[in-house]
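Sequence only, no structure available. Ideas?
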Amino acid sequence: MSALLDAALLRPLLDGHWYDALSAVLDAEVRAGHGTPDLIRARDLATAAKRVLDLDAEDFGAIAAAFPRAEWRDELNGACFPAEPRSPERGALGSLVPLYELMLEVLDLRALRHEPLQVVVTAHLMAEYLPQLAWESTLGHAGDPLRLREDVGERWGSDDPACAHSAPLRTTARRAFHACSGDLAGYTAYLDRFHSRQGTALAICAMHHLATEAGERPDAGDTCPNPCRWALRGTREEQRDLDARVRLALLYEESPIVALRHHAPVGHFFGVPSTSEISAAWLATWERLATPWPDGSNPLLLPDAVPGRPDDTEALPGLSALVSAVAGRTIGPGRLLRDIGLEIGHSIGSLEGAS
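Reply:
I predicted one. Tokens follow.
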């Protein structure tokens, strides 16, 4: 490291998880000919951390392959969608838990960096796949199109007028059946344009009229009056539990914090939400999510509700509890980015122990 760059000056960048700035500073040192092995390692880790913080999911596989630690590779591979349609490693198609752990961590770090727009963007992304997260405990996977045909059928993807799916959702359902049986271009198009919609289709199937009575629970999107046999798996209590968790997911999807992203296109000098606007939107969201339901089944309020696992400084208090309630299992923010930060500190030497 050059005499002009004191390692102590990098501490605020690490403490604030400013991996983009840290990468740029260290890269300048390397290009200036001061690239010791430890400095190059720190630069490479900071660059990788920046891309993870940006949720550059398309390249998670390549980023993970360069990680020096197997546990980091496993964490990031678990959070990414497989690059190939029939890849044996199913990642977020097999389970969404690692991806939600990563998004919870990213949201908290974005708040720590005082980046309100990125907080809103991440909160919006978390709404995209919540119905699939709810279904994961029933399906055994997160709506993986490679396995979906084993679990759904009958009217799914058909033109049967008894199906409650709209025309676009029927198209999505058909595409899901074939997404992993065609070429890479078709699979990629499915992930880009249809996979999040698959969750909406599954949500309708979960909220069928044999599980609940009218008025028992808050309205949250379309429901199914004529459920297929595959949607009736398990006991009625299990079906009601799935219905409740899917409804909670959809209530979040239609919440003020997610709507804030739609109202923040950021252009013509306007649109960036303030911290106070985010706080107000989250408070309104939480009040809506935590409102008791007529039949007493709100998953957030049950006596044996699944606890969340938040950090002490959770940016949106209750968010990990919401994700856990939807999933039916305890989920909290991961440690991947923080652990990379610690490793960067060790590589620099005098910053050992920074977080």
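Residues 350-355 have pLDDT under 50 and may be disordered.
Hope that gets you unstuck.
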